[in-house]
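User: Second chain of the day. Same drill as before.
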Amino acid sequence: MLTKIPQKTSLLLVILFSSACANSQEPHAMKFIFSENKALKGIGDHKMEFRINGVPIEDTFCETFTVRIARILVTSVNREWALESALEAKGLGRSATIPPSEASMEREVKPEETPDGRPGFKILFIDRKLEPLREWFIVRIRKGVMPYPKTSVFDALPEEMAEEAVDIKGTIIQTFGDGFEQETEAFGRKVLRIPRMDGDFLIERRFGITKGVAGGMFLILAKSDEAALEAAERAVEATKSVPFAVGKFAASGTKVGGKTYRDAIATTNDAYCPSLARNEGSKISENVKCVYEVIVSGLRLEYVNRAMKVGIESATKVNGVLRITSANYGGTLGKGKILLQRLFDIKS
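Assistant: Same format as last time:
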């Protein structure tokens, strides 16, 4: 049976508990801190607050949804040109609110890990619908990879995950060869060998597509521009340690629909804009000077969860981060849920 603890006793418990937390040697310094004037049965007028590295993690969630994902590997003669090509191929892919399809760099791949023994980068192409993904897949490779020196493209999606496919035959990638292209095998894969002026462009004949998860998201609230930016950078860098997931961050965090422009698909998330902190409906205090939205997608929910967890852990290590939260929209963005605090029940 729960009993009410006298105020003096509860304050003593706060002091003892806080002292124990401060001396904790746990790797993530996960703590529950008592906050005054918040009711909790059995603990007087105090409530426990969930923290990671001393930063409060709000008891909220983001909304997830199903997407189609292709995963490619771009290689070239050296790291510089592999990176240049990968960056071009994922161009205009940071936001999912308008075309072209979303695209994000997953990670760098060492030569010993690639089929042709050259440096490379893995990219995820993402869209809610299959046909737009197929369309932009072809465009991104034709414009973003083919023109770059000594590039090749391979399917990087595990075969067992593939549910659909993109066939390169009959597309503008094949017809670039003007009949001089050949279907052949290289590095144990079926490829098209397309002549170009610096040699042959190799591209795998078919690329798998799978159903994945998008909508993983958390907001970093910080007391300065510098703290927010460093925390977001660290968070995204941390997500690279998780395979089959991608992280990125945006200044133009959005909400579903609009208040003034009713027909808009997505508009500025005014509740988290520091310049609107005094407005009715704001969800941040005036000491919050900058907010970044960290977005995570992946081939499966488990990878999204892990990437969000390590991202939050890294972000909260930055001095000046005030709070981690998320946003949700009554299921209008997605029917799935990722509860921020529950992420820390997951073993890394």
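The helical segments are 7-22, 79-89, 130-144, 172-175, 225-239, 301-315.

User: Great, on to the next one.
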